[in-house]
Specification:
- It contains 15 helices and twelve strands.
- With 393 residues, it is of the alpha/beta class.
- The strands form three sheets. Strands 3-4-5-6-7 form a five-stranded parallel beta sheet. A five-stranded parallel beta sheet has the order 9-8-10-11-12. A two-stranded antiparallel ribbon has the order 1-2.
- The two termini are 19 Å apart.
- The relative contact order is 0.12.
């Protein structure tokens, strides 16, 4: 039995070594093409750090990656999750791994590269947390018990102390919940919206999960087909949102009602439409709230309104392969006082280049049903795949 397990492990590691070598080989090849065609998919070179390396890595993932989903646990806290509204990305990923395409899922745990613990932190909060207590002990105890169960029943957790296991959470309390087990907190792959590098998020092993708000489970119809790039956008910048966290008060203090070109609201008047403003604005401001991520970033991508990211310590989604500077602006919180000056300094040519980048990157931030190549589900998996490639067992 032990010899068989060792053969399986050696086979996995040999395959990963070949994948690493293939990616390294193409990474050194200079690519001067503006677009790359792959099975009728257009890969725009400008938005990637290394487009040929990304494409090779993605193909290696499609060819090799196997995910084992633990069957332990009871619905709704395990094997289920919210599939609409603010926590969409958590439930949709769990649902896809459980019930969607099984291209990457394996029933043979011995052949898996990574192991998914399909518990929902959002549903833990709903069913285990006592409101207004701020006591996360019940959530941490559930995680502790879950890890104890799978590590007792299966040999795979103990083989790596959880380093090739991953959890996924859209909820802000995902990192705190993982404290229920020291190895889960320190070694496992965390796929989190709360990707704050100053609070323990480690981009070398963890994955930044895009935050997306699907009201009723669907993209707002106004964002499905943005207006033509030739249509004028009369507003320079737009933001509407409450005084959550440390960044927004600074933004509102300096710019709320101060300049007719910057439409900055604490709360948008009821007679105005949020998405109409996004579609009429050149830049959409995306400040952090209580936590670093914001659904405005994905909404801005859909609206082809250049995201202006106002956040400290936020590790942006898919930033190990995407050049965020090709389709967004990042402004230091200390520079908010100069915000209009910074936006006005963007030339028309630069603005059009950023718009082109937004159109090229949109497919990576769409939750399709059924899933499609290069969409958000696959990009999350690819980020997990990259962490596994870098892990030597």
């Amino acid at each position: 039995m032990l010899k068989m397990q060792k053969r399986e492990s050696d086979k996995l590691e040999e395959g990963l070594a070949r994948a690493r070598a293939a990616v390294r080989r193409v990474a050194s090849i200079r690519n001067n093409k503006s677009v790359i065609m792959d099975s009728n998919h257009i890969i725009s070179s400008s938005i990637y750090r290394n487009p040929t390396a990304f494409l090779q890595s993605y193909k290696e993932m499609e060819r090799r990656l196997k995910v084992y989903v633990y069957e332990e646990g009871e619905v709704p806290i395990v094997h289920d999750g919210p599939c609409k509204d603010i926590y969409t990305s958590e439930g949709r990923f769990i649902h896809e791994m459980e019930h969607g395409s099984h291209r990457f899922r394996t029933s043979r745990a011995e052949e898996a590269h990574v192991y998914f613990m399909p518990f929902s932190v959002t549903w833990m909060v709903k069913y285990l947390y006592k409101p207004n207590t701020y006591d996360l002990t019940p959530l941490q105890e559930f995680v502790s018990d879950y890890v104890k169960l799978i590590s007792t029943k299966h040999p795979f957790w103990n083989r790596t102390q959880g380093a090739d296991h991953f959890m996924l959470s859209r909820h802000d309390w995902g990192p705190r919940t993982s404290e229920g087990n020291a190895h889960l907190y320190n070694k496992s792959i965390h796929v989190l919206c709360n990707a704050n590098s100053s609070e323990g998020f480690n981009p070398q092993k963890d994955v930044s999960l895009p935050e997306i708000h699907l009201y009723g489970g669907y993209v707002n119809p106004k964002l499905i087909s943005p207006p033509s790039p030739t249509i004028s956008r009369p507003y320079l910048a737009f933001f509407a949102g409450g005084l959550h966290g440390p960044v927004r008060p600074i933004l509102l203090h300096h710019w709320k009602g101060r300049d007719p070109d910057l439409h900055i609201y604490e709360y948008l008047p009821k007679n105005l439409d949020y998405y109409d403003y996004m579609l009429k604005s050149k830049f959409c401001l995306c400040p952090s709230g209580y936590e670093v991520a914001s659904p405005r970033i994905v909404e801005a991508i859909y609206a082809e309104c250049i995201p202006v990211i106002l956040s400290d310590h936020y590790v942006l989604p898919f930033s190990d392969v995407l050049r965020w500077e090709a389709f967004s602006l990042q402004v230091n919180v200390t520079e908010i006082v100069r915000l209009k000056e910074i936006l006005m300094a963007v030339t028309e040519d630069e603005f059009l280049r950023l718009k082109e980048g937004l159109r090229a990157t949109r497919k990576h931030f769409v939750l399709n049903q059924p899933v499609e190549r290069f969409d958000m589900f696959h990009m999350i998996l690819h980020s997990i795949w990259l962490r596994r490639l870098n892990l030597r067992i």
